[in-house]
Each structure stands twice: as C-alpha cells, then as structure tokens.
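Annex B. Sample input.
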Amino acid sequence: MFGLINSMNVNNNLKKGLGMAVLYVASTSMGHALTYPYPKTGNIIGGYQKITAPANDTLLGIAEKFDIGVYEMLRANPKLSEKKLKTSTQVNIPSQFTLPSGPHEGIVIDLADLRIYFFHPNKDLISTYPVGIGRQGWATPMGTTNILSKKANPYWYPPSSIREEAESRGKFLPGVVPPGPHNPLGAYAIRLGFKNILIHGTTQPHSIGLRSSHGCIRMYAQDIQELFHLVSISTPVRVIYEPNQKD
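Annex B, continued. Sample output.
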C-alpha cells in the first residue's frame, strides 16, 4: 500500500483531477501548511499542480518547499531522480488529498497517506502536513489519544530500546541529547499519550513521507513549528491506517 512501502521505485502515473485551490493564510503561525477550506461536499481537498523546476533544484528540495512528502513526490514523478533537475523540467505536485473518515476534530494521522490532518477548532479550515512514521519493527501505534505536553527546544532522552539498537550497529548514544542542531527531535516536540511517542521535528528532512522513525511522527522543521503553535494541551489525536481508493 501507498503509505507503508519503503521502496522508492514508483511506477504509478500521477492521477489528474480538480480540487479546491489552496488557501494560503498569510500569518506567522500558518505560513507554510497546505491549508484548505473545509469542503462543502465530498472528501477531497486541494488540487494537482505542475511547475517548472528552478535551475539546479532537486525533487526533494521541491517536495519540502511545497509541503509534500518524499514518497508522494517520487510517485507523482517516477521518471525523475533525486539529483539536480535540468532547467525547465516539469514537475508534478501531488497536492490533492482524500480526507480520512470522521470524526474530524483535532489531529488525525493517517499512516496510509503519511499525513497529518489538523481540523481547526472553528471547523472551516483544514491544514495538512506530510510526516515520517515508524519503520519496520518500530510501528507507530494506532488508536485514540491526546496531546499531553509541548516543548520548544526539547532535550532528547533516548529510550533504552533505541540505545540498544544503536549499540548493535556499533553506535553509541548518550543518555541525553541537549537542544541544538544535532538533536534528532528538532526544535519542537509534542508528546502524545502513547508511550514514548512524540510528534517532532527532524535533522533528516529527506525522511519525511517515508517509514523512517522509531515510531515517532517526524515533520519538516517549518511544519512542526506551525503545528506546535496551533494545537493545545488535550487536543484529541487519532492515528489510523486508512488507504483510499487511489492506492
């Protein structure tokens, strides 16, 4: 299925369709998210786009600029590689999404889409972000929980399970990693009710949109900053696996 494949050898063609135009909200707290009006009918938001790539840009660079996950971009552009693109290369931007089933409140993380959907409290806007999720052997838990706490500039205390795995590969992890550019949690962390599970930033933006973590939910730096300021303690969080018909 789409959301849980590790391979990046994608042969599916981009599906074409029309959708609502992105509503770009010009504010500090929501400057990067793909934010859409709640659809009056149906469950589709956004719409596919095609751009001319800037000279020497990469598919991964364009993915981050347009808030698209790595796998989504590779699937939509199977003939392009991660290397620098030639001038005037046409790139598909797969920015049309199928909303998960209800209830539509708080945060819904669809592991099949590798996306977070945040339903704004006023019920008229939806923001969506690509995420990296647990890789094989480190599954992101499914179920219903809520936000327990939020921390800017977090310390990382690697759990014993992660330290042991690292040691099996000949790598030593300290008991604590302070805030800074080498902290795997990035600059913001949101703690969920699931044991040892956070929504957080990352030092590896190329891992967003893939099965890449030890179970936590990774986000682009600008996305976690945005979501961090949008949500509050006790916001409901629902983690599902719901492949839609396009998969």
